[in-house]
Design goal:
Blueprint: E1 9-10, E2 13-14, H1 18-27, E3 33-36, H2 43-52, E4 60-63, H3 64-69, E5 77-81, H4 84-92, E6 96-99, E7 128-131, H5 139-150, E8 154-157, E9 163-166, E10 169-172, H6 174-185, E11 190-191, H7 197-207, E12 213-216, H8 219-229, E13 232-236, E14 254-256, H9 259-263, H10 266-270
Helix pairs in contact: 5-6
Bound molecules: magnesium ion.
Magnesium ion (MG) is lined by residues 3, 5-7, 216-218, 239.
Length: 271
């Protein structure tokens, strides 16, 4: 199970050797599942990007948007405060999605993103507010999301990573955004992504009882996911974790400079 941000790329910058390393795993017949807490794009968009980068088909992609969507009932009314990928996953679940996350500038009210005929329905309230990674997150979105939660909606979040590694360094993650909604609404959030049960359940559906290794750059998410699945954890130093952060609070089975050097040790790891 391979993390994306900090393993395959940092922002728009590919990490040297990672594409070739995944190609090698697929050639050897390993099952490869990409598993990301980044909810800003759908699994199908992620898949296209990976294929565009030259990775041969034959892999699965699961995002935290897919994971949090499993917490939403079909037919429920959901305020989405994330990217397009989150709204897509929620709609695929059969929810009625009011997507304020994609608006730019942010709407002054949820009514602004509805058809006129639907405006009166806004007061009906929401069953769920779902927060995902969103670089356009602003005060107005915070205001609407907190009001909906105070009005009785559950507060769900794709993942609680407080940071993620991007092109220019470390940036605020979804956990930092949802912390603002928690503070403004006074209610705690329920997460869907790594290392939480909704994501673990989706992954178990794909891999069954096969043993494996989770490779990622983050002990709190990738390492804890490995623990939950009974997998080994391979930590790579191409993302949020540096050598100076070691040892981590979570068990680490192998530390590698990057994915390519970890895959070079594959035969030792599966023995
Ligand atoms: Mg990562």
């Amino acid at each position: 199970m391979l993390d994306l941000d900090g393993v395959m790329w940092r922002g728009a910058d590919p990490i040297d050797g990672s594409t070739e390393a995944v190609g090698e795993l697929l050639r050897l017949g390993d099952q490869v599942v990409f598993c990301t807490n980044n909810s800003s794009e759908s699994g199908s968009t992620r898949r296209m990007k990976l294929l565009d980068r030259g990775i041969p088909d034959g892999f699965d992609v699961v995002t935290s948007a897919d994971a949090v969507a499993t917490l939403v009932e079909s037919g429920s009314r959901v305020l989405s405060v994330g990217g397009a990928g989150l709204a897509e996953a929620l709609a695929a679940r059969g929810a009625e999605v009011i997507d304020i996350g994609a608006s730019n500038p942010a709407p002054q009210s949820a009514a602004e993103v509805l058809d006129p005929a639907e405006v009166l329905e806004v007061d009906r309230g929401f069953d769920d507010v779902v927060v995902g990674l969103n670089p356009r997150f602003d005060y107005q979105m915070l205001d609407l999301a907190a009001a909906a939660v105070r009005g009785g909606a559950r507060l769900l979040v794709s993942n609680t990573d407080t940071t993620y590694p991007g092109s220019g360094g470390i940036h605020p993650g979804t956990g930092s955004l949802v912390a603002a909604v928690e503070a403004a609404s006074g209610r705690p959030s329920t997460p869907g992504g790594k290392p939480n049960e909704p994501m673990a359940a989706l992954l178990r559906d794909i891999v069954g009882a096969a043993p494996g290794i989770v490779v990622g750059d983050n002990g709190d998410t990738d390492g804890r996911l490995a623990e939950k699945l009974g997998f080994r954890f391979g930590l790579v130093l191409t993302g949020v974790t540096q050598t100076s952060d070691l040892p981590l609070a979570v068990p680490v089975d192998v530390v590698a400079d990057d994915l390519a050097s970890l895959v070079a040790r594959r035969s030792e790891l599966i023995s």
